[in-house]
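It is worth pausing here to work through a concrete case rather than discussing structure prediction in the abstract. The textbook approach is simple: state the sequence, then state the predicted structure, then interpret. We follow exactly that order.
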Amino acid sequence: MLQSLEIENFRQFSHFTIPKLGRINLLTGKNNSGKTSILEAIHLLMTTEHPAQVMTELQVMRGELSHTYENQKYASEIRHFFHNRVISNQKPIKISGLLNDHHKSFQIEIIPGHSKSNRIIPIDALSGNLQQPDLPQLRIKVRNFDESVDQYEGSLSSGERIIFSRQPLQSSILQNQNSELVFLTRLTAQEAAYFYSQVVLRPEEERVLEAIRIIEPDIQRIAPKSVEVEVLGSMPKTGFFAKLKDVDEIVPIASMGDGLWNLMGIILILVNAKGKTLLIDEIDVGLHYSVMVDLWKLIWKIAKELDIQVFATTHSQDCWKALGELIEAEEIYDNEIMIHRIDAKHDHSVSYDTDKIVIAAEDQVEVR
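Step two, the predicted structure:
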């Protein structure tokens, strides 16, 4: 598991550290305080994908793209990754952390022109452009657990952008099943159908049903309709149906509200993430406060069983207080559950271990 995190010159952060991390980490903070940026930093540090692919996927989610004059081509503007969107040759982006007692790091820098290296994997394998020595170069260095360094380098087009084809706009969550982590926002019908197919008729299927019964206890089974998923696969909340107790007709899950779909998506990803890191942005969207304790209990149980490290963000007081109830109910006192308040104006998180979370909940201390 990732034990600590340090960030320099990335997004909102000039310099920021989270000195200690747990198995479940809930990130709190005001709007635009940097919670999602922390998830992105972890994604870049931990991924086994091509870094340019990951960077493009993150910018797709952020809407940081622009069209080009070429058909089906898009531009990714690198400046959005740098602190205050200012690109400097003297200030690279640095993300590092301690992972199972081994140091791992990720660095992005801009250099004036192309330089030789024995371990270069061209960024242009993604963008399709040839390296041009007269243009600024984007260099990415990834230091692995065994102290080896992978280096990626490619030319930036005018305006310091990476040009790429439409392919990265397709579902990255389906393309990269061998990655060590999953970044979950909201599942499309196609993604949900894929992950459900991986657990159907297995013990994990009952975990999914256990989760959605938190909201609708009368659900007996769920299943996708392949024809509808094929036609409407890129849309969320479509193609899945439920069999309810004492109801003859199957019922579209979409008719039961956003909360049920979002909860199903969280658990579907979780039971498919054995040995991985799971990043969940706004975990409580669409969920009533009354379901949060049961959801955290299920997440905690599955995360321990499958050796998963979870990072999630929230704005909700009910969400973090539910963690306090979980800690007391399950008598969790090994600091495997932590809350981290994020504020890019400071240089480190304000972190709460299990004891402090319980005290904060009991004494009505504001941790957001």
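Step three, interpretation. The chain is about 30% helix and 25% strand. Residues 116-130, 165-170 have pLDDT under 50 and may be disordered.
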